[in-house]
Amino acid sequence: REGVWALIHVLAGEILYVVEAQQAVSDDTAKEVRSFVLSPSTRGVICPQVPHHVTVRGPVEFFVEFHRAE
């Protein structure tokens, strides 16, 4: 959503956070995929309007904290 970003907080276990950024390369559009393993010691940042998804890796407890730019 435009103007909304978020933080992913993992309380227990791990999740795989995948960011799928679009980049213009010449006349073509390329997709750059970056993956991050999030755990209680590592938070994830979700930027506005950037496609992403998460995959749980076994038992996990997490929450997403949303923020809006004003």
Question: Summed up, what is this model?
Answer:
With about 70 residues, the chain is mostly beta strands. Helices cover about 0% and strands about 65% of the residues.
Description:
The structure is a single chain. This protein has 70 residues and is mainly beta. The protein is 0% helix and 67% strand. It has strands at 4-12, 15-25, 28-38, 44-46, 52-56, 61-68. It has a 3-stranded antiparallel beta sheet with strand order 4-1-6, with no helix packed on it. It has a 3-stranded antiparallel beta sheet with strand order 3-2-5, with no helix packed on it. The radius of gyration is 14 Å and the shape is flat. The mean pLDDT is 88.
Essential attributes:
single chain; 0% helix; mainly beta; 70 residues; 3-stranded antiparallel β-sheet
Distance from first to last alpha carbon? 14 Å
Which consecutive residue ranges, at least 5 long each, have pLDDT under 50? none
Task: Please provide the ordered H/E string of secondary-structure elements.
Answer: EEEEEE
Using DSSP, what is the number of strands? 6
Q: Tell me, what's the shape? A: flat
- Proportion of residues in helical segments: under 10%
Sheet with most strands: strand arrangement:
4-1-6
Number of H- or I-type helical stretches: 0
Largest sheet: 3 strands, antiparallel
Oligomer designation: single chain
Structural class: mainly beta
Which strand-content bin applies to the residues?
A: over 45%
Task: Please tell me the overall pLDDT.
Answer: 88
